[in-house]
Amino acid sequence: TWRLDDFANAAIETIREQVGNKRVICGLSGGVDSSVVAALLYKAIGSQLSCILVDNGLLRKNEQQLVIEEFSSHFQTDLHVVDAEDQFLSDLAGIEEPQEKRRRIGHAFIECFKAEAEKIEEAHFLAQGTLYPDVIESGADKDGPAATIKLHHNVGGLPEELGFELIEPLRDLFKDEVRRLGLELGLPEKLVWRHPFPGPGLAVRCLGEVTRDKLKVLREADAIVVEEIENAGLYRDTSQAFAVLLPVQSVGVMGDARTYDNAVAVRCVNTDDFMTADWSHLPYELLARISTRIINEVKGVNRVCYDISSKPPATIEWE
Ligand code: XMP
């Protein structure tokens, strides 16, 4: 049978042979795949690894900080954090259409990553967390109708024009194997079991135009959703859980004043493969707590809805 420590050792050997004494760049996103790639490379080549985290201003609450802490507690290597919020938000100004948002975010990401990578001397390789399902999916994207459903800019990764030689050590692995490998490499459970988060981040959960103010509201609401699901002990039992800021205002009462504020949708799904998904049948008490907390704690929100649509025909994300 397939053994993980064998896989890790073999992968480390292969990386060492391939890399020699050259430098490798690895993009970090805070997600499982890029963290496992970084951990594997670190084990293989140590200080020849440089990591780049592009903060696009579309990350979740405290996410940049979390990634940095996580990173520096596990690796003593070179980390570059690019604060690119201003650029991404100005590229997104006035844009409402979801695919156009994705396109602009994809371009801005490549630009920022490239500019930072160019500062790293003698970088020769680029490591990516491509998994086996990505390999299959990107094949389908090129030739089939799958491409027209949604653009996944981070799948398939950065373009070859960047001029790096690619290293994709997770190419043969499925997600559950990547998680096991992460644990084997000493990454904490919390990181290894993190829900997936889309490359375009909160931009596709902030429906319509993305603004700094809307992101602030969404970030707070989202943090409450995740925190309450964790507190209820249901994080591992759900596949994704998040808030969506709707482009809708509705009437409410607060004290004796009338409000006209935003509505937030809570989306929580269970799925094996993300191709089909069921909405999570969360306990009413938990939903009530999420709703009360969001309305009480997040300024600008007076209504919370729970999304009870399955995929298909709905998608997991709203955009
Ligand atoms: P949908 O909304 O298509 O999502 O049911 C399926 C899975 O893909 C994630 N998703 C994305 N991931 N870039 C990504 O990296 C994207 O543009 C994107 N759109 C959706 C979504 O979070 C879910 O896990």
From TrEMBL:
A molecular-function term among this protein's GO annotations: GMP synthase activity
Domain GMPS ATP-PPase intervals: 2-194
Catalytic activity: XMP + L-glutamine + ATP + H2O = GMP + L-glutamate + AMP + diphosphate + 2 H(+)
UniProt enzyme class: ligase
EC number(s) recorded for this UniProt protein: 6.3.5.2
Record keywords, A-Z: ATP-binding, Glutamine amidotransferase, GMP biosynthesis, Ligase, Nucleotide-binding, Purine biosynthesis
Assembly notes: Homodimer.
Protein name: GMP synthase [glutamine-hydrolyzing]
